[in-house]
């Protein structure tokens, strides 16, 4: 059975922290929900639960980044809204190296409407100096977390969903993903589908069915980054296709 995305995050964070002594973890009263408790158990002096204070969690992370540490600040997408001002003034404007991990991005099922991460794409994109990414699967989540600790270009957002992923063999190797670079998953001639995030897995199945049922040839592109956008990839799509579907 594939693991929960939160457990992929928690275990990957420990792996990265073992390799990079600047990494610390921060969460506002969500250690088990986001699996920060895994780091807390193994490295208690490098993980901080600041209580139900999302704004403080972000500002605290910014302060540690200012002092040379690399905080992975994990807050549910819907509750990151409470820290909007802190993201802007205490992290983004100062271009501080904080990794903002948005668990529960998208719809969350049994967690209920207060936890739906429905707004982060819209509310984060206008903020200057942010990198905003979304992994399609567990391997991509690990690669993005690895890549986030290699950059010194400022705050790096990784948004990922509640629930299980799609891979039983999820512990893939660490590889750097160039900031702002998407990927072509499949060639096609009739139309192009552009996805961002885990909805791409559902799109893959829909593409397979459409090709099988209707004889279409459909290209599939995984954008990976909402900001900065991969303009080279988008120009390729624009030159080759008259019919384009975007899914987020």
Topology:
Blueprint (H helix, E strand, L loop, with lengths): L4 H15 L3 E5 L9 H6 L4 E3 L4 H13 L3 E7 H4 L3 H9 L6 E5 L16 H5 L6 E3 L4 H11 L7 E4 L23 E4 L4 E5 L3 H16 L3 E5 L2 E3 L3 H10 L3 E4 L1
Parallel strand pairs: 1-2, 1-3, 3-4, 4-6, 5-6, 8-9, 8-11
Antiparallel strand pairs: 5-10, 7-9
Helix pairs in contact: 1-7, 3-5
Structure, explained:
By secondary structure, the chain is an alpha/beta fold. The chain has nine helices and eleven strands. The protein has helices at residues 5-19, 37-42, 54-66, 77-80, 84-92, 120-124, 138-148, 199-214, 231-240; strands spanning 23-27, 47-49, 70-76, 99-103, 131-133, 156-159, 183-186, 191-195, 218-222, 225-227, 244-247. The strands form two sheets. Strands 2-1-3-4-6-5-10 form a seven-stranded mixed β-sheet, sandwiched between helices. Strands 7-9-8-11 form a four-stranded mixed β-sheet, with helices on both faces. Helix 1 packs parallel to helix 7 (138-148) and helix 3 runs parallel beside helix 5.
């Amino acid at each position: 059975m594939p693991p929960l995305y939160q457990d992929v995050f928690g275990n990957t964070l420990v792996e990265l922290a073992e390799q990079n002594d600047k990494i610390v973890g921060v969460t506002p009263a969500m250690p088990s929900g986001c699996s920060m408790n895994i780091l807390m158990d193994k490295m208690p002096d490098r993980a901080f639960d600041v209580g139900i204070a999302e704004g403080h969690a972000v500002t605290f992370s910014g302060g540690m980044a200012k002092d040379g540490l690399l905080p992975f600040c994990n807050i549910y997408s819907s509750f990151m809204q409470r820290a909007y001002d802190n993201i802007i003034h205490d992290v983004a404007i100062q271009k501080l190296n904080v990794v903002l991990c948005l668990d529960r991005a998208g719809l969350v099922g049994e967690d209920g409407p207060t936890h739906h991460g429905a707004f982060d794409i819209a509310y984060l994109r206008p903020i200057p100096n942010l990198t905003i990414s979304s992994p399609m699967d567990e391997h991509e989540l690990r690669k993005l977390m690895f890549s986030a600790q290699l950059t010194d270009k400022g705050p790096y957002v990784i948004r990922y969903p509640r629930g299980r992923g799609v891979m039983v063999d999820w512990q893939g190797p660490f590889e750097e993903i160039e900031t702002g670079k998407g990927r072509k998953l499949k060639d096609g001639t009739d139309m192009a589908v552009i996805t961002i995030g885990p909805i791409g897995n559902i799109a893959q199945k829909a593409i397979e069915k459409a090709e099988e049922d209707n004889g279409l040839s459909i290209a599939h592109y995984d954008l990976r980054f909402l900001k900065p956008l991969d303009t080279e990839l988008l120009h390729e799509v624009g030159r080759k296709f008259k019919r384009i579907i975007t899914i987020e």
